[in-house]
Amino acid sequence: MRIDGGLSPYTQKLDAAALAKMYGCSSQDFIKTETRRRAAIVRSRGEKIRDKHFSEKRNQEFVDFCRATGLRRAEMKSLRGDQLVYDEDTKSYFLDVVGKGGRRRLAPILSNEAVQRVKGADGLVWDKIPNGADIHAYRADYCISVYNKHARPLDSIPKKNRYCCRSDLKGVWYDKNAMAIASQALGHNRISVIAAHYIRK
Fold first, then answer.
1. How many domains does the chain have?
2. pLDDT tens digits along 137-163
3. Would you say 175 and 164 are in contact if contact means Cβ atoms under 8 Å apart?
4. Both 89 and 161 in a single domain?
5. In this structure, is residue 143 part of a structural domain?
6. Are 63 and 139 in contact (CB under 8 A)?
7. Is residue 48 very low, low, confident or very high in pLDDT (cuts 50, 70, 90)?
8. Which domain does 31 fall in, by range?
9. Using an 8 Å Cβ cutoff, are 79 and 125 in contact?
10. Rounded to an integer, what distance in angstroms lies between the CA atom of residue 199 and that of residue 43?
11. What's residue 62's pLDDT?
């Protein structure tokens, strides 16, 4: 039913895994789901899915802030000025964020403008979060920036420290260490998540 309904392979496999957990078996015991392909992901891909009622130009400060912090929508809504943290060792600013599942992380801030915005907030940093803003796309931009900041030249990385993509991205390699840093900054535990949904060539 889920396959016939046209749901993505990612959703199909998620449902199969949930059923397998409930019945105490392997998802391989169910009907074969479709192959997951990064090219088939439509979330935050291309102008066609952007909200035509949202203007990035009129909301440029907000968009730039999202790209400099990588926060989720819920995290943006609750962000307060007292969540700003300064690390003396790295001379860098971070946001002390409690994200999905109550997981806490320090998210690096990539621009001085974003730091000043948080510093100047007595309470909430943003009174209102635009509904049409493609925050997931801005998180992807943030992820790429963090990754590129820490990525080493691939020819200088031992093969065991390289992440090799598969399927439609076969032949694409990434620096595992830089991926781990970017993944942690976004609030994800597995680097495969950012490889599939955030890092874009």
1. 2
2. 999 999 999 999 999 998 899 999 999
3. no
4. yes
5. yes
6. no
7. very low
8. 9-36
9. yes
10. 13
11. 97
